[in-house]
Amino acid sequence: MKDILLKTASSESVIHCGSGSFERYTQKYVGKQIFVITDSNVCSIYKNLLVKTFGNYKDYVIPAGEESKNPENLLKILEAMLGSGMRRNCYVIALGGGVVGDIAGLAASLYMRGTHLIQMPTTLLAQVDSSVGGKTAVDMNGVKNVIGAFYQPEEVIADPLFLKTLPDRELRCGLGEIVKYGALNKDILNKLLKTDDLFSFDFLSEIIYDCIAHKTEVVKHDEHDLNGLRKSLNLGHTTGHALELYHGEKSHGEYVLIGMLFELYIAQKLGVCAAQYAEKLKKLIFSVINEIPSFADIASAAEYALHDKKNNDDKISLIVPVSEGECTEIKLGLSQYTNYLIACSKELKGE
Ligand SMILES: NC(=O)c1ccc[n+]([C@@H]2O[C@H](COP(=O)([O-])OP(=O)(O)OC[C@H]3O[C@@H](n4cnc5c(N)ncnc54)[C@H](O)[C@@H]3O)[C@@H](O)[C@H]2O)c1
Ligand SMILES: [Zn+2]
Q: Would you tell me the crossing angle of helices 252-269 and 334-349 to the nearest 10 degrees?
């Protein structure tokens, strides 16, 4: 077990990583006023563990899935908290993936202007990414994360125990983000290249700590996404997200990896990323995803990238790998970007 401290101008989060951290660090909440927010899948698997750990607690269970991350459920959670007599000093525990973490974090920030918040991420993606850094949100009218707040959890308990019940698709999803960290951090990259099994429980248990350590360093210096540093965490995401919106059949992390492939192609064509390094990253990407969908009308997907909220002008902003541990931002007009996507798509299909 290892701890990481995330100290920002206004708050302090302690992040406990490793096997055994759930059992060890939940003990202090026993007897406190606890409100657990979780989803239907996690509840059905871990209800007994919750009862055994906390004894008496109140909870609210949202249906599993991104569609639950909405203002209606946010209000239902707040009503349930009020209805069950939660005080301002209660402990909101978010036990689940990023969906639960995001909506529970926002509920905790709003209820009586802010309660204690403990994130207990149960997906690989939530452990390496969403539970850390204080971004909370719900979606509205089809727009992702449009209502939200920065609200740091006091504690994050990232115990790989939960990965044992995670479906393969969700592991792949988390690995997408882990490979992204590899493109941002030399040490993570070397570990990823060295292991003979990216999916092994022991390997993942170790790399989760490295990814969180990387993210906390970034968040420390750009908590509110203002100076461009935090933007680096969006590597692969502009194209990945556009393909996700357009195609929508694979997991988010797999689209991040496919987005990285396209963006690597662009970075190479522009002479920003050397071929040898790009090949290393590509090999890694293909060790997580086994096939690239054939995108019939990739030009339509490209248009989604134009509406990405990270663009602050009419250009498409991409964070691309340069060399080990280094990335940069490039900006492209829509037609140039579309042409690159079409050319790369043809190359991937072997045309
Ligand atoms: N706040 C941030 O900084 C941040 C960063 C990245 C992503 N996100 C958000 O995170 C969300 C995606 O998170 P996610 O990928 O964890 O999805 P998710 O929360 O929907 O979980 C994926 C699936 O796994 C199930 N599940 C969770 N834990 C399980 C376990 N231990 N065993 C078996 N099944 C389990 C869930 O019920 C769900 O069906 C998105 O809404 C995204 O916007 C937020
Ligand atoms: Zn992501």
A: 100
